[in-house]
């Protein structure tokens, strides 16, 4: 991973460029705080915003995007906007309808990335056919999945015409998902991290604190830099402008090979979110 700037991108299997670092808005309530957060992120150079139908904040994200574009002079084409179809809408027609609903709430003409949020039972196969339809129609620039284990990906790819371009999963130093990452790399599927900071649970870890001290950085910056050096796109969530700037200040240093390995060794296969094999709603 050679990203040197916040604007740097990875290239997905279909040639679409996706920023390495973005803003996540999970559990951010729709309203003024969210609108201001999206505007601040875009103002500070963020070009990727990640939301989902179940977050119930697509409207605020869309408003923040429109106001930011107006104020900064940036263009819609510079942005990379992601949303996700929720479990109750996993079916061919239901997924197509859910996509249109998300688009309407966001006030956008297209999405850059649309994901199946969870691999619920057999339902995700029909939903994937809908994503393929949207992609072929040019309504979305890239399609992918979220929270898929290897066996889910294998099952999906047996019937899929188009392979997922992204798999967004829980990923942090306590859950390094090495086998999944190797599988995704083998199949040109870009891995993306949600909850990269393990909801703040790692900020006092002595190994991370020592590395942070060495680089004169925060533990959060060390973890996000580790993500990028592992080739994993990351979308830390925050509504605080100062934290956004801090999260983006990770392009002026690099972890050594030894430091990356030290962080790798913190893995315990421990989740803060549900296990995709046991999560339906």
UniProtKB/TrEMBL annotation:
Presence of keyword Oxidoreductase: yes
Pfam families found in the cross-reference section: Aldo_ket_red
Keywords from the named record: NADP, Oxidoreductase
Keyword NADP: yes
Start and end residues of each NADP-dependent oxidoreductase domain: 22-267
Top-level taxon: Bacteria
Alphabetical list of Gene3D superfamilies matching this protein: NADP-dependent oxidoreductase domain
InterPro entries: AKR (IPR020471), AKR5G (IPR044500), Aldo/ket_reductase_CS (IPR018170), NAD(P)_OxRdtase_dom_sf (IPR036812), NADP_OxRdtase_dom (IPR023210)
Record-linked PROSITE patterns: ALDOKETO_REDUCTASE_1 (PS00798), ALDOKETO_REDUCTASE_2 (PS00062), ALDOKETO_REDUCTASE_3 (PS00063)
Sequence similarity: Belongs to the aldo/keto reductase family.
Name of the protein: Aldo/keto reductase
Species the sequence originates in: Anoxybacteroides rupiense
């Amino acid at each position: 991973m050679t990203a040197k700037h916040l604007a740097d991108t990875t290239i997905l299997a279909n040639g679409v460029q996706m920023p390495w670092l973005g803003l996540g808005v999970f559990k951010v309530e729709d309203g003024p705080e969210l609108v201001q957060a999206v505007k601040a992120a875009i103002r500070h150079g963020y070009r990727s915003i990640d939301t989902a139908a179940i977050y119930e904040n697509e409207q605020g994200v869309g408003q923040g995007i429109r106001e930011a574009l107006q104020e900064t002079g940036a263009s819609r084409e510079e942005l990379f906007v992601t949303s996700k179809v929720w479990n109750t809408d996993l079916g061919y027609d239901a997924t197509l309808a859910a996509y249109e609903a998300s688009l309407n709430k966001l006030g956008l003409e297209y999405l850059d990335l649309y994901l199946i949020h969870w691999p619920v039972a057999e339902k995700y196969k029909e939903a994937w056919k809908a994503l393929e339809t949207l992609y072929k129609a040019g309504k979305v620039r890239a399609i992918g999945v979220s929270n898929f284990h290897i066996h889910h990906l294998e099952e999906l790819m047996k019937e899929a015409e188009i392979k997922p371009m992204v798999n967004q999963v829980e990923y942090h130093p306590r859950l390094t998902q090495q086998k999944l990452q190797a599988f995704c790399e083998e199949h040109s599927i870009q891995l993306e991290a949600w909850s990269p900071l393990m909801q703040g649970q790692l900020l006092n870890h002595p190994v991370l604190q020592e590395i942070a001290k060495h680089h004169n950085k925060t533990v959060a910056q060390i973890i996000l830099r580790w993500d990028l050096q592992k080739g994993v796109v990351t979308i830390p969530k925050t509504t605080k402008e100062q934290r956004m700037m801090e999260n983006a200040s990770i392009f002026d240093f690099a972890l050594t090979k030894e430091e990356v390995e030290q962080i790798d060794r913190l893995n315990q296969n421990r989740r803060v979110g549900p296990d995709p094999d046991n999560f339906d709603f």
